[in-house]
Amino acid sequence: MALNEAQQATELIARSKRILVATRQPETTDALAAAVAVSLFLNKQHKTVDAVIPGFDPKRAPSFLKTESLKSTLGAVRSFEISVDVSQNPLDQLHYDVKDGRLLIDIVPQNGEWSPKDVSFRHGTDRYDLILALDCPDVHALGDLFKDHADFLYRTPIINIDRDSGNEHWGQINLVDLTAVSTTEILYRLFLDWNRNLIDEDIATALLAGMIAKTQSFRTSNVTPQTLQTASELVAMGAKREDIVHGLWRTRTVPTLRLWGRALARLEQDRDSGLVWSALTRQDFMEAGADDRALDGIVRELVSYSPDAKVVVLANESLDIQKAGIRISIHAQPPYSAQELGRVFGVTGSRDIIEFDLPPTTSLVEGMAMVIDRLRQTIKAIKK
Length: 384
What we know:
Blueprint: H1 5-15, E1 18-23, H2 29-44, E2 48-52, E3 70-71, E4 78-84, E5 91-99, E6 102-109, E7 119-126, E8 130-134, H3 144-148, H4 150-155, E9 158-162, E10 173-176, H5 183-195, H6 201-214, H7 225-236, H8 241-249, H9 254-265, E11 268-270, E12 275-280, H10 282-288, H11 298-305, E13 311-317, E14 326-332, H12 338-341, E15 353-358, H13 364-383
Parallel strand pairs: 1-2, 1-8, 2-3, 8-9, 9-10, 12-13
Antiparallel strand pairs: 4-7, 5-6, 11-12, 13-14, 14-15
Helix pairs in contact: 2-5, 2-6, 5-6, 6-7, 6-8
């Protein structure tokens, strides 16, 4: 009997020796929680796992998530092999040293000497034999991981786990479930079929956190009875619901709330195009006493105040006085794709979000006006 995709995934994971867990960049709470849950679960299976989120800052992670094992950089994806033919002249001594940024390898044969023809070079084997991609509708959502290691991604088997209707099914195995509210809900079902006894308090908390964050504490329209049943089961398994709610929404600092207030005060909307936008100056950050970490969550607040918004744009001046510039973030919801909208600006990203910088000579007002005008025209063309 043929295996279904979930069974194929568990079989492939079981056979793998070293697994790379990757999520979208920048990560969502759902993606972060999914990475934590998978890492903890596979560690209990005695699997060697590296969870990498490019640019990940532990300070931004909710305290209730066990993020200690997450990495912000990937490092080397494969070795470099130096081969010496010792079949005719065995090795006697080997020494190495690093000097002036160079690796020096000193090898001494038992007799005579080796010639250049006895030495060869080649790439060694990959460090990872499987990739678990979480909450990534397409390969571009991996951000720097895709930009820097595209060849590695194309030659390594990928299990693609997501609930996005726009997912391109780009993995060799695709666990894409449109009925789930979050990636962590899909993982829960996978873990149940695999070995439910391995789901402890930390794993249950991570799984529930992704669901709560994605549904705004079960207030979105896609919440189903199955979702609520899953949440109930996770709480019964030890998920710390109160810690999650407190960590996600009740620990905002006063400077963060001040900055959010300034963004909401400048909120503008074009109902015909479904556009919502706001802007923040460098002065706003200074007067609010906030840094760029306070930007996390602003878009979610903008959407909650404008539920009909399909495209949300946030612009902010660089906080570095020595470096002028405007940062633009465009977030899209179906039927629009941020990646498609970004083509007019010559940038790429994921279906959900694109980010880019305007030229240093552009003012905040001029830059926002230009971006909104182009988006209006692009959305109008898409509607035709």
